[in-house]
Amino acid sequence: MNNTELINAFGDFKEIRNISKTELMAIIEDALKTLLRKKYDSDDHFDVIVNPDKGDFQIFLNKTIVEDGMSEDDELEIELTKALEIDPTFEIGEEFTQEILVSELGRRSILTLKQILIGKLQERNNQHIFDGFKDRVGEIVSAEVHHIKRNQVILLDDDGNEFILPKEFQIPGEFYNKGDNVRAVIDSVEVRGTKNMITVSRTSPVFLEKLLELEIPEIQDGTIILKKAVRIPGEKAKIAVDAYDDRIDPVGACVGVRGSRIHGVVRELRNENIDVIQWSKNPEVLIKRALGNVDITKIELNQEERHALVHTHADEISRVIGKGGQNIRLASRLTEYEIDVYREPEEEDVELDEFKNAFEDWEIEEFRKIGLYTAKSVMEKDNDYLLKNTELEEEQIIRAKEIFKEEFDK
Questions:
Q1: Statement: residue 17 has pLDDT above 60
Q2: If you average pLDDT over residues 273-284, what whole number do you get?
Q3: Residue 273 has what pLDDT?
Q4: pLDDT the model gives residue 18
Q5: pLDDT at 53 exceeding the cut of 70
Q6: What pLDDT score was predicted for residue 14?
Q7: What share of the chain is helix, strand, coil (3-state, %, to 5)?
C-alpha cells in the first residue's frame, strides 16, 4: 500500500464525518507521528510533510553520519561509506535524510496506523460534536426515538446526533415507541471516555420555561418577564411572571382566553397543572399568590432564615398544603421561603346538651335529627331552613338563637 492509497482508504470517513482534505491531512500527520513514537520511542528524528493539494505525504528519517564501524543505532545513524555511495560530498557529523515509505514500515505498522487514524478521526468527530453542543445547554431539541432501553431512551435528530433521555428525566407515566418524535431540553454535554454524551430532559424547569417562550410571544420579546418556574413533573407547576409595563396583565397574557395560550404547554407536559402568578417584590404578597386562592389571616416572616409561618383556618389547611403536599412545596420553591402552616384556634362551641335547662328534650332532638349538635351549627342555619326541616315553630327557632347568642356574648 502506498501513501496515496492509504489516504484514499479513509475517503469514507471524509464523506461521513464531513472532514475537509486539509483536516484529514492534519489528522494523518498527527497519526504518523504517533506511529513513529510507538515504533521508535520518539519522532524527533523524523520529518512528516503533508501535501493537501496532491493528497500525499512523505516521511523523512534524519540520520547522523558516523565513522565506519562506529554506528550504535542503525535506525538513527549511518556509516560514512554508505552515505558517500549516495552523495560523495557527505562528511562525518552531517545529517543524512532518507525517505521512508509507509510500506517499508511493515504490515503490522500499517494496521497500527489505520487504528490510530480511526481513533483520531473519532476524536475529531467527538470534539466537533462537543463544540457544537456545549453552548446549547438549555435549548430545546426535537429528535426521533431510535432505541428504547430499560433506563434510558436514545434519540437521533435529522443530522444523526445522538441524545440520551434518562429514565429520571422522563415525565412519569410517559411511554415511547420507536419512531416517536420527542421534544426535550439539552441538560448537559460531556465527554465520557471516547464518547460524547448529550443528555436531554423533559422534567427540568428549564424545559417548561423554553416551552413558554415558544408559545408566548411577549416572553420572547421581553415584554413579559418569566421570573421563575418550578415543577413536580407530570403533576403540578407554578410560574411567576412580571411585566415592565403596568398596563399589561402578565398572567392573562400567559394564560390566554380560556387558557388557549398555555394549553399547548400543558399538553406537551402530559396535562401538568400549571399555576401562573404575578411576581411581587413584597415577600408576603408573593407567598400569598404562590399558595393560590386560599384564606390566609396572617404571615410571620423571618427574612434572615427565609422562613414563613402562614396562619389560616382549619378548613383551609388542606388547600394550602395541596395534594401530597404539592402546593406548599412548590410555593416554597417558587418564593425561596420555607413555608409552614399554623392553624388558627377556632372559637369555642357549645354542645346542645348544655342547654337542657332552657329547652324541652324534644326541641333539642329536632335539631339533632338534621345533624345539628352544637349551638354554632344551629346559628349558622337560616330560619327558613330550620322551619322546613324541623317541627319547630318560628318563635321557638328565634328564641333558641337568642339563647345561643347570649351564651357567646358573655
A1: no
A2: 95
A3: 95
A4: 60
A5: no
A6: 47
A7: 45, 25, 30
Q: Where are the domains of the chain?
A: 3-131, 137-201, 219-343, 352-409
Quote the longest CA-to-CA distance of the chain.
142
Question: Which residue spans within 193-235 are E strands per DSSP?
Answer: 195-201, 224-232
Per CATH, 137-201 and 219-343 having the same topology is answered no
Residue 315 φ/ψ, nearest 5 degrees: -75, -5
- 194 vs 196: CA distance, rounded Å: 7
Q: Which stretch of DSSP H or E encloses residue 12?
A: helix 11-16
- Three cell numbers at 162? 445522538
Dihedral angle of Cα 382, 387, 392, 395, to the nearest 10 degrees: 60
Report CA 128 to chain centroid distance, whole Å: 22
Residue 317 has pLDDT above 70, yes or no: yes
Distance (Å, rounded) from C-alpha 1 to C-alpha 104? 10
Asked if residue 125 lies in contact with residue 17, where contact means CB atoms within 8 angstroms, the answer is yes
CATH of domain 3-131: 3.30.1480
Of 129-143, 210-224, 286-300, 341-355, the least confident: 341-355
Fold (topology level) of 219-343:
GMP Synthetase; Chain A, domain 3 (3.30.300)
Q: Are 318 and 328 in contact (CB under 8 A)?
A: no
Lowest mean pLDDT among 25-29, 202-206, 257-261, 297-301: 25-29
- Report the distance separating Cα 177 and Cα 175, nearest Å: 7
Q: Cβ distance 375 to 350 under 8 Å?
A: yes
pTM: 0.66
Can you identify the CATH homologous superfamily of domain 137-201? Nucleic acid-binding proteins (2.40.50.140)
